[in-house]
Structure formats: structure tokens, C-alpha cells
Design a protein that fits this description.
Layout (H helix, E strand, L loop, with lengths): L6 H22 L6 H6 L5 E2 L16 H21 L5 E2 L1 E4 L2 E2 L2 H5 L9 E2 H12 L9 E4 L9
Helix pairs in contact: 1-3
């Protein structure tokens, strides 16, 4: 008897998700082009390799596979940042809290969406980070609704 029903299946999903992110980044890094060209314009390519969330640093009970995937994705992002730093490529880990998007129709149809951030608010902070000079890197952005974490 398994202590957690479906644990093996969920764990496999975590591994597949992390592998998918690695494959995508492996293909995207060469597309960043010659970083020297970007540096002449005082910008650097930015990558945010994984779909992260505040679950990368906060535990949500009953979501072990989701938490594990986000923790793994954050570790991947942090490592990738250090590997790409010498090439002048900035990597930003974006950890948003509850954001009012259509995914909530599937995850939690009755979620209190009025307590969530707008996607535009999240986008604005990313734009602000991208506008910094090439010699400055925002490594991690944690953005949450002012009312805190939503509880189910």
C-alpha cells in the first residue's frame, strides 16, 4: 500500500516537467544571439526558463507534486542564471502569487478572483526589471496579492 495514492505518477510528472523546461532552454539559449550586439544597445537577453510560482518557496498542503515541481524549477533557474551569467544573459526567476487568469476556471472555479493580482500588474514588474541597464540583474521577483495567500 502506498502512503500517498498516486505519488509515483505525480513524481513522474515532476521529472517530465523539469525535463521539458531543460529542453526548451537548450533550444532558446542559442536564439539569444551575440550578446555583444545587445550590450552595444545597453540591453541583455533575459530568460525566465520555468513557470514558477510562490509555491517554489512556500508549501501548499495537499500539493506535493506541484510544490516539488516548483522547487525543482527554481533550482534549475538559479543554476541556469549562474551558467549563463558569463555570456551576459540575465535570468530572472518570477514567482507570482495568485493572478487572475483563466487557469482558475479549472483549478478553483469559485476562487475569490477579486483578491488576486491582475496579469497586467505582474507584467509591469517584469517590464520594469527588463528595463534596467545591462550591468544590473534582478535575479528573483516575488509578487503576491496585497491580501496575501488565498486559502481554499
Amino acid at each position: 500500500m502506498q502512503p500517498f495514492p498516486g505519488l509515483v505518477h505525480r513524481a513522474l510528472g515532476v521529472v517530465v516537467g523539469l525535463h521539458r523546461q531543460a529542453v526548451l532552454i537548450h533550444g532558446a539559449v542559442p536564439l539569444a544571439g551575440d550578446v555583444k550586439d545587445f550590450a552595444q544597445r545597453n540591453v541583455a537577453p533575459n530568460l525566465s526558463p520555468a513557470r514558477l510560482s510562490v509555491a517554489a518557496e512556500r508549501i501548499f498542503v495537499g500539493s506535493s507534486a506541484y510544490n516539488a515541481s516548483k522547487h525543482g524549477a527554481l533550482g534549475f533557474t538559479d543554476t541556469l542564471r549562474e551558467e549563463l551569467r558569463p555570456k551576459g544573459i540575465r535570468v530572472i526567476a518570477l514567482l507570482p502569487g495568485a493572478t487572475d487568469t483563466e487557469i482558475w476556471q479549472t483549478l478553483w472555479p469559485k476562487a475569490p478572483r477579486r483578491k488576486m493580482m491582475t496579469a497586467e500588474s505582474v507584467a509591469q514588474i517584469v517590464i520594469d526589471a527588463l528595463r534596467l541597464p545591462a550591468n544590473t540583474t534582478v535575479e528573483k521577483i516575488i509578487i503576491r496579492p496585497s491580501l496575501g495567500t488565498l486559502e481554499n
